[in-house]
Specification:
- This protein is α+β, with helices and mostly antiparallel strands.
- Helices cover 46% and strands 14% of the residues.
- The protein is built from 15 helices and seven strands.
- Strands 1, 2, 3, 4, 5, 6 and 7 form a seven-stranded mixed β-sheet that branches.
- Strand 5 and strand 6 form a beta hairpin.
- The longest helix has 17 residues.
């Protein structure tokens, strides 16, 4: 299996790495938070969330005793809320069982898998644990000229990461690989002239940089339509808590249904004011929201009624926040 010039990679990292807030600490809790936030989310998006999170929950103990609604409210806008719940579950586990040190010990924590355990342990205490994320997998595929896909590519990348791990600076080496994939060996527009591994890269030598990793056909998008009505009475907004098993469970939203008839059953047969449409994406679902304002003469008992200022402190999915903005604009107009 093709060997990496570890010295060249680490030298490049020492000179070129970005100054990110979670790189200024060896606190395993802070590194853990950053790694969970960075899953499927861009660095530029994560930075302000990470800083607010660490200001509000600076220790694993503070997160372990936090109210779920407070935790979800601070996370809202990052998406993939299951990550947030697992992070809180993991904090409670750590408080009960003690803080892990090695990657093997971190695997026992809820929500921590092979990649995250390797990242936390190698960066915080230089445990010689490899890791593979999407960036590392792409660097490997191009460097080794591996055209395999799916699970086989993933396994090969892990074998390569284990073989090439720098035992003296495992944390920096792992971060260097991820940094290389994020800033130089990008999915599109790779800058091979800046790459410390370019001279040994098979994809570059054979003109395959834009071909590897091998593209996998994307799943056909699923198109959905939701109808959302915003109940409004005497300056108060009516909300429902999202039940378990649905997207964004535990958060709050305005009544949302697939069919208008279901809404009419809840809110009665009244004339509503159309607010407009909002389109958003969840995984491979393309969702169109038809939003309307329902001004009711009484507070419906099925709903929780809150003021506009109270709404700001409740965890709501981003699409529902957009519907709220439409309602606020209409009411002000």
């Amino acid at each position: 299996m093709k060997q990496v010039d570890r010295g060249a990679l680490l030298c490049w990292y020492d000179c070129s790495r970005r100054d990110l807030p979670w790189r200024r600490t060896k606190d395993p809790y802070a590194i853990w938070v950053s790694e969970i936030m960075l899953q499927q989310t861009q660095v530029s998006t994560v930075i302000p969330y990470f800083e607010r999170w660490m200001a509000r929950f600076p220790t694993v103990e503070s997160l372990a005793v936090a109210d779920e609604q407070d935790v979800l409210s601070l996370w809202q806008g990052l998406g993939y809320y299951r990550r947030c719940r697992l992070l809180a579950d993991g904090a409670r586990w750590v408080v009960s069982h003690g803080l892990p040190r090695t990657a093997a010990e971190w695997l026992a924590v809820p929500g921590v898998g092979p990649y995250t355990s390797g990242a936390i342990a190698s960066i915080s205490v230089d445990d010689p644990a490899p890791l593979v994320d999407g960036n590392v997998e792409r660097v490997y595929a191009r460097f080794a000229g591996d055209s395999s896909v799916g699970l086989l590519l993933h396994r090969n990348a892990w074998d390569w990461a284990r073989l090439n791990l720098d035992s003296e600076r495992p944390g920096d080496y792992n971060q260097a690989l991820m940094e290389l994939g994020a800033t130089v060996c990008r999915p599109v527009g790779a800058e091979c002239g800046r790459c410390p591994l370019a001279s040994d890269c098979i994809a570059r030598a054979h003109g395959l940089v834009e071909v590897l990793p091998t593209k996998v056909a994307k799943a056909k998008p699923i198109r959905l339509t939701h109808h959302v009505w915003v109940p409004y009475h005497s300056g108060l907004f009516g909300l429902m808590q999202i039940p378990p098993g649905q997207w964004w469970e535990g958060m709050w939203e305005f009544p949302r249904f697939d069919r208008v008839s279901e809404l009419e059953g809840l809110l009665g047969s009244a004339v509503v004011e159309a607010l407009g449409e909002h389109r958003h994406t969840v995984t491979n679902h393309r969702i169109t929201i038809h939003a309307s304002l329902f001004q009711t003469s009484s507070q419906l008992k099925e709903l929780r009624w809150v003021t506009e200022s109270e709404l700001a402190g409740l965890p709501m999915p981003a699409p529902q926040r957009r519907v709220l903005q439409l309602a606020q604009t209409y009411l002000l107009g």
